[in-house]
Amino acid sequence: MIPPLRSTPSRSLALAYWRQKTARRAAARPSASNLLDILLDGYCVLDEEGRIQHTNPALESLLACPAHQLGGRLLLEFIEPSCQTDFLSLLELMKYSRSRIGPLEVEMKTAAGEPLAVFLTLAPSPNGGRELAQVLLRDVSQWRQVQNELVAVNLMLEQSFTDTLEGWAKALELRDYETHGHTQRVAEATVQLALEIGYRLEEVLNLRHGALLHDIGKMAISDTILLKPGPLNEAEWEIMRRHPVYAEQLLRQIDYLRPAIPIPYCHHEKWDGSGYPQGLKGEQIPLEARLFAVIDVYDALRSSRPYRPAPWSEERTLEHIRQQAGTHFDPEVVKAFLKMKNFD
C-alpha cells in the first residue's frame, strides 16, 4: 500500500512555484481583445441595425477614422452605393443561415472620401443579444491597382501584336497593289459572319488574326509568279498552290500565332474535297477556314482584278456563292452568309 503524501516544506514550495508559473502563463496568454488589436485586417461588430459597436485599430486606420467617431455609425455609410445592395444581401444571408459568408469584394471609402477596395467577410456574433455580426475587412486596394496595371499592360501588348499583324498584311498588299484593302475587308467580314453563326466576341480574336494573315505564305512566292499579268501555267500554279503550306510552316514556329493557322493553311480547301493543299473534305476543314472561304471569294469577285474586266455585281456574286454551296462551300455557312447579306 502506497502511503499518503504528507505536507512537507519542499512539497509546499513546489506547489507554490507551480501555481505562480501557471498564473504567469495565463497572464501572458493573449486575450481575444489583444488579438484583435494586433490583427492587420479591419474588424468590427455590427448591431441589428448595422451600426458599428466595436472596432480594432486596423479598422480605424483603414477608414481613417478614430474609434469614438466610428461607434454608432452605419457601416453602410462607408460602402459605395454601387455595392450597398450586395452588402445588404450578404448580411441578410448571414443572418438567416447563421454561418460565415464571404469574402465579397466591395468598393468603400474612407471618412475623408478616399476610395478603397476591400474583401469583406461576415460571421454571426457569438455574443448574441443586439450584436448581429462580426465583420472582417481586408484592404486589397494595392492589389487591385497592380491588377489594373497588369490589365493595361496586357491590352497594350495585344494592341501592339495586332498592329504588327496588320503591318505584315499591308506589307504583303504593297507587293500586289491590285489586292489593296482586301485583307482588312475580309478580316472584318469574317468576324461579322462568325458572330452571325454564334461565335462569342472573345472567340473571334484568333479568327481575325488568321484572316489578316491568310495570304502570308505568298511572301515566299516570287514576284514573277505573284505579279504575272497574264494567266499562270501549270508549273506556276503548282508553286502558287504551295502558299498555304508556306504559311503553316511560318506560323507554327511562333507560339502565339499557332491558333491563327487554320485560315492561312486551309482557306483554299473545298467542301467536296477538290481544294488544296491537303484535299480536305466537309467537316475535316476547320470551321474558321470554311467561314473565310466564302468571304474571300465574295470579296475577290466584287473587286477589280487584272484577269477580270470588271467586278461582278452584288446579285451575280451572291448567286454564284449560292450555287457553290455543297461543292466549294459548306452549305450551312452559305446559308448564314446569305442571311447576313439579306439574300436568303
UniProtKB/TrEMBL annotation:
* Stretches assigned to the HD-GYP domain: 157-344
- Entries under SUPFAM superfamilies matching the protein: HD-domain/PDEase-like, PYP-like sensor domain (PAS domain)
Gene3D superfamilies in the record: Hypothetical protein af1432 (1.10.3210.10), PAS domain (3.30.450.20)
Q: Provide the PAS domain boundaries.
A: 28-82
Top-rank taxon: Bacteria
**Which PROSITE patterns would you find in this protein's record?**
HD_GYP (PS51832), PAS (PS50112)
Record's InterPro entries? Cyclic_di-GMP/3'3'-cGAMP_PDE, HD/PDEase_dom, HD_GYP_dom, PAS, PAS-like_dom_sf
Report the protein name in the record.
HD domain-containing protein
Provide the species name: Bellilinea caldifistulae
